[in-house]
Design brief:
Layout (H helix, E strand, L loop, with lengths): L1 H16 L5 H8 L3 H13 L16 H4 L10 H4 L4 H13 L6 E4 L3 H8 L7 E5 L5 H4 L5 E5 L3 E3 L4 E3 L1 H9 L2 E7 L2 E3 L2 E4 L4 H10 L1 E7 L11 E4 L6 E4 L5 H9 L3 E4 L1
Parallel strand pairs: 1-2, 1-6, 2-3, 6-9, 9-11, 11-12
Antiparallel strand pairs: 4-5, 7-8, 8-10
Helix pairs in contact: 1-3, 2-3, 6-7, 9-10
Length: 261
């Protein structure tokens, strides 16, 4: 048991320090199976292991986590749905208006994307590529939409799928637009709370012609543990009218098209 505990702590530290780690590389490093690494990461997620602040040296299991306590940095889809709902709904509605007939689009995970799905035009023909469970109930019975679902290991906290096969499929596909979400936007780039999302998000971005970020203003100036893209990679940003003038000017300097709704 001690050996497993030490490995989990080491994996958690690796994930925070280097967002380039994959399931396969972690399995090779610790000489265990990929399934064992997946179980360890699930344990990290479910027990809300503490995330180190800048300049701290250790990443450890907190007493609060051991007792079942929560962490504000751990992304939970259901609780995120209750935050900034009005802004997210407006952003999602505007994003849906950018979809054209016969588009091939990738829909990322996230609550704002969920609102976008609810606003998609009902009859236009589309191909939608996704790797998240939450949008499937709204789309599976629409005959005008061709669905391509990249499956794999199911993460309940984000309602998303992740696997090596998932990545390989996304690498082979091409989309006219991607609607991407983020947990934080700062000068270094776009970040998320879960390391397992990084490769999926970055691969989906590279497979898309037009990259559209959906992010309410509360995410700007926030940094999470795992970097998946630079801000300069975005072609369009859709946010709300509370976005600060400083951030608006920053996006303008980077020649990123900005829509405030």
């Amino acid at each position: 048991m001690l050996k497993r505990t030490l490995r989990i702590q080491a994996i958690a530290k690796d994930i925070i320090q280097s967002p380039t780690y994959t399931i396969r590389s972690l399995a090779q490093k610790y000489q265990v199976s990929e399934m064992t690494v997946r179980r360890d990461i699930q344990y990290i997620e479910e027990n809300n292991l503490t995330v180190p602040q800048p300049n701290t040296e250790a990443f450890t299991v907190s007493e609060n986590a051991a007792a079942g306590g929560g962490s504000s940095l751990n992304y939970e889809f259901t609780s995120a749905m209750e935050t900034n709902n009005a802004s997210k709904r407006r952003i999602g509605t505007f994003a849906a208006s950018l979809v054209q007939p016969n588009d091939v689009i990738i829909l990322d995970t996230g609550t704002t994307v969920n609102f976008m799905v609810q606003s998609l035009p009902p009859d236009i023909p589309l191909t939608i590529i996704c790797y998240n469970y939450n949008i499937l109930p709204a789309l599976y019975n629409r005959p005008n939409i061709q669905l391509i679902v990249a499956g794999g290991y199911f993460h309940r906290s984000s309602l998303s799928f992740e696997s090596t096969e998932n990545i390989e499929l996304l690498q082979r596909l091409r989309a006219s637009k991607i609607f991407i979400s983020t947990s934080g936007v700062d000068r270094m780039g776009l970040t998320c709370s879960n390391q397992y999302e990084v490769t999926t998000k970055s691969t989906a971005l590279h497979s898309s012609k037009t990259k559209i970020l959906l992010s309410d203003s509360s995410k700007f100036g926030v940094m999470r543990s795992s970097l998946f893209a630079s801000l300069e990679e975005m072609d369009v940003v859709i946010s709300d009218t509370n976005l600060s003038a400083e951030w608006q000017q920053c996006l303008q300097r980077k020649n990123i098209e900005l829509h405030l709704v």
